[in-house]
Design brief:
By secondary structure, the protein is an alpha/beta fold. The protein contains three helices and three strands; from the N terminus they run βαβαβα.
Length: 81
């Protein structure tokens, strides 16, 4: 697939439950995946090893959300999902 044609997804809470499953699914379709996580885990390590860009985000803290949004905007210039 041409990199210019590669689709991108942003997944909030990419390392847990549904977010992890969605991240793995989009990776299997050769999508570029960006996401957030609250705490490091074996899932975050696995996703990062597969090329997922992850940024820390604690959804209970406004400053953390703002920081994560800025990072995602910087790294993911456009997204499909």
């Amino acid at each position: 697939m041409n990199v210019a044609d590669q689709k991108s997804a942003i997944v909030i809470s990419a390392s847990s439950g549904i977010g992890y499953a969605l991240s793995k699914r989009w990776l299997s379709y050769d999508w570029k995946v960006f996401g957030t996580y609250r705490t490091s885990s074996t899932e975050t390590k696995e996703l990062q090893d597969q090329g997922v860009y992850l940024t820390n985000c604690d959804l209970s803290k406004e400053a953390s959300i703002t920081k994560a949004c800025k990072e995602l905007r910087s790294e993911c210039l456009g997204w499909d999902i």
